[in-house]
């Protein structure tokens, strides 16, 4: 899978570095370093980081980039 | 000047189960003065703007005494915690806590708890064996987060029960006192007592870890010398540890309970989650939008006149932001009243925004994801026994007091 972070959007909330510390790391309080082609074993960590980003700066592409139910996750409830 | 009489209704217990129609009414005037005094802000972009505005203060000392209406949760004998401070005092304390809790200094503190979290979840669900009905709040949601906080801080397992007791009592301060004046007096007395016992216990633990540090967060706090700023004093540590305990406790209880309630009200989504447990990741984000544990942010103060959405909020006004309403603002979220587990571009206010954004959010996410995925996997044919369930009184930290769930069996 491939990871791209829009560093113009990133505001240093650091959710990704908490949830996927082998892929994302804070350098000081604001700068972000990351691995753009993480190992497949980090898939869930990366998906957690993507979902948790408060400014939606993280994009994940390639195999395993979504949940199988994507697009079907719709319910009107009772 | 237009004003509304909605805050009283929002706080009225009769509207606890479904406050969302009141928020929709409130959004007709994005910024409005309530007849009870405070200014209410209910639309997404206006809330966003004020959460990022340095002219909005969280420091309780800037608030006029007559404007103080929300219940006090802090120990009056300790300095204010960082949630109730502005920069630069807020920034110093938050930075010092972050040095012991998160990146860049402690990047694996929360991540390293994943195994513990899943063990605690399994252990609590194992205890449902042989039953066909549980109260999710008492049997699961309530004991779970405080156990995680104990592991995070480094509270020894043999002390956990005592710690749970203080946490429970201290947390009751978020509820308005009810009953006769004598009963209310006794209520506050019990809270004060628990605060003192908790402070005494934590002081002992800090002293002990200072002598013999371990790998936990209390040891890191007790031994940290700070970087550029002066390290935390003991009263500051006690005040901020108590905050982490209260804030990390009640809110997570409600997130998990609201989560199961929402899933049981949306059986198709529950089925999808059973088939694809990873769906829990975006689903928890949608839950934070749809049923946020923190509904209102009461009692911020304007340090200057602020012009917003055609209204001037005067300096010194009490400001109540309504993030649970911003989360349902149709100008920001298409079909805001539908629960869409993989909703795109979900920049909700579930954890606030700006400098006071929830410090516990990564931990809360891991806890809620683990709990909901495992509850849904293991409970066979779970169903609500009553809808709506009975709610807690609190309108700010809103959630069910009990959530009875019936089920046919328990998977391994």
UniProtKB/TrEMBL annotation, chain A:
UniProt key word Iron-sulfur: yes
Pfam family, one: Fer4_13
Keywords: 3Fe-4S, Electron transport, Iron, Iron-sulfur, Metal-binding, Transport
Swiss-Prot/TrEMBL cofactor(s): [3Fe-4S] cluster
UniProt KW Iron-sulfur keyword: yes
Domain of life: Bacteria
PANTHER family: FERREDOXIN
Record protein name field: Ferredoxin
Lineage: Bacteria, Bacillati, Actinomycetota, Actinomycetes, Kitasatosporales
Automatic annotation (TrEMBL), chain B:
Statement: the UniProt record of this protein carries the keyword Nucleotide-binding: no
Lineage, highest ranks first: Bacteria, Bacillati, Actinomycetota, Actinomycetes, Kitasatosporales
Entries under InterPro entries matching the protein: Cyt_P450 (IPR001128), Cyt_P450_CS (IPR017972)
Alphabetized PROSITE patterns for the sequence: CYTOCHROME_P450
Name under which the protein is recorded: Cytochrome P450
UniProt-listed Pfam families: p450
Region entry Disordered, spans: 65-84
Family listed: Belongs to the cytochrome P450 family.
Superkingdom of the organism of origin: Bacteria
Keywords assigned: Heme, Iron, Metal-binding, Monooxygenase, Oxidoreductase
């Amino acid at each position: 899978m491939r990871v791209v972070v829009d560093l113009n959007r990133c505001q240093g909330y650091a959710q990704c570095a908490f949830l996927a510390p082998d892929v994302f790391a804070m350098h000081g309080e604001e700068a972000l370093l990351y691995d753009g082609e993480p190992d497949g074993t980090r898939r869930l960590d990366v998906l957690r980081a993507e979902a948790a980003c408060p400014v939606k700066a993280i994009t994940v592409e390639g195999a395993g980039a979504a949940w199988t139910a994507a697009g079907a996750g719709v319910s009107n409830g009772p | 000047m237009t004003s509304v009489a909605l805050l009283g209704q929002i706080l009225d217990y009769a509207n606890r189960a479904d406050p969302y129609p009141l928020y929709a009414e409130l959004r007709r005037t994005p910024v409005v003065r309530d007849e009870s005094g405070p200014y209410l802000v209910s639309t997404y972009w206006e809330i966003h703007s004020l959460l990022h505005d340095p002219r909005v203060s969280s420091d309780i000392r800037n608030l006029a005494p007559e404007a103080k209406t929300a219940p006090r949760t802090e120990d009056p004998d300790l300095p204010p915690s960082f949630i109730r401070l502005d920069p630069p005092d807020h920034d110093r304390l938050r930075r010092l806590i972050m040095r012991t809790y998160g990146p860049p200094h402690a990047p694996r503190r929360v991540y390293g708890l994943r195994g513990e979290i899943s063990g605690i979840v399994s252990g609590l669900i194992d205890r449902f064996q042989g039953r066909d009905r549980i109260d999710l709040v008492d049997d699961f949601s309530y004991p779970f987060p405080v156990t995680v906080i104990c592991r995070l801080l480094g509270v020894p397992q043999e002390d956990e029960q005592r710690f749970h007791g203080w946490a429970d009592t201290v947390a009751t301060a978020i509820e308005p006192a009810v009953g006769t004046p004598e009963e209310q007096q006794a209520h506050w007395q019990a809270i004060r007592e628990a605060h003192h016992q908790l402070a005494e216990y934590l002081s002992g633990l800090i002293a002990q870890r200072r002598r013999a540090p371990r790998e936990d967060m209390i040891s890191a706090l007790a031994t940290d010398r700070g970087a550029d700023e002066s390290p935390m004093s003991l009263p500051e540590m006690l005040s901020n540890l108590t905050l982490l305990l209260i804030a990390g406790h009640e809110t997570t209880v409600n997130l998990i309970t609201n989560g199961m309630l929402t899933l049981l009200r949306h059986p198709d989504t529950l089925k999808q989650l059973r088939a694809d447990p990873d769906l829990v990741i975006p689903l928890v984000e949608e839950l934070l939008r749809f049923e946020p544990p923190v509904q209102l942010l009461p009692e911020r103060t304007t340090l200057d006149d602020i012009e917003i959405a055609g209204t001037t909020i005067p300096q010194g006004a009490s400001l109540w932001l309504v993030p649970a309403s911003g989360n349902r603002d149709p100008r920001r979220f298409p079909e805001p009243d539908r629960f869409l587990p993989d909703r795109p571009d979900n920049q909700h206010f579930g954890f606030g925004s700006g400098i006071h954004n929830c410090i516990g959010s990564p931990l809360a996410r891991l806890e809620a994801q683990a709990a909901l995925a495992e509850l849904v996997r293991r409970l066979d044919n779970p169903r609500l026994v009553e809808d709506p369930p009975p709610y807690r009184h609190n309108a700010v930290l809103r959630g069910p007091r009990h959530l009875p769930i019936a089920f046919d069996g328990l998977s391994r």
